[in-house]
Design goal:
Blueprint: H1 2-11, H2 25-60, E1 64-69, E2 72-77, E3 86-87, E4 99-100, E5 105-110, H3 112-115, E6 121-122, E7 129-130, E8 135-140
Antiparallel strand pairs: 1-2, 1-3, 4-7, 5-6, 5-8
Length: about 140
């Protein structure tokens, strides 16, 4: 639109006066400059938001968890948990990964953030699935 306005302003005569004036291109250039400024400001703003989000994501995902790996107990960052690790879960702990309950002792999970159900869900061999982001409210496993 702005480029077309510049071309028309240079080539076509003014419809009111009928004369070809060399100032008709100014409107097109002004539009082009305005659009460029808006695009740059938006891009810089989006970049800064993305940078802050990535920094927040890096810091918020660094939570130590107790695991058993290759038969030995470890304390690792939740981001370092891999398939095959066995997590030790206690009441009050938020689960940072999806998983299965291998052994539980009165383990009940708050899955309201994922399912909307407000009651604590008992986890055992009948319902062994753990969902990332849920919290243990009772027991351990």
């Amino acid at each position: 639109g702005a480029v077309l306005s510049i071309i028309c302003g240079v080539v076509l005569p003014d419809p009111e006066t009928g004369r070809a004036e060399s100032t008709g291109w100014i409107e097109g250039v002004a539009i082009l400059i305005s659009v460029t400024i808006v695009v740059w400001v938006t891009a810089i703003n989006d970049f800064q938001k993305d940078k802050k989000f990535r920094a927040f994501y890096r810091t918020s995902n660094h939570k130590p968890v107790r695991i058993i790996r290759e038969g030995l107990p470890w304390v690792v960052d939740v981001a370092e948990v891999v398939v095959g690790d066995v997590l030790e879960i206690a009441a009050g702990q938020t689960i940072g990964v999806d998983g299965l309950v291998l052994e539980g002792h009165g383990l009940k999970m708050d899955e309201s953030a994922c399912t909307g159900e407000s009651d604590a869900i008992p986890k055992d061999a009948q319902d062994p699935f753990l969902i990332s982001g849920t919290s243990a409210v009772e027991g351990y496993g």
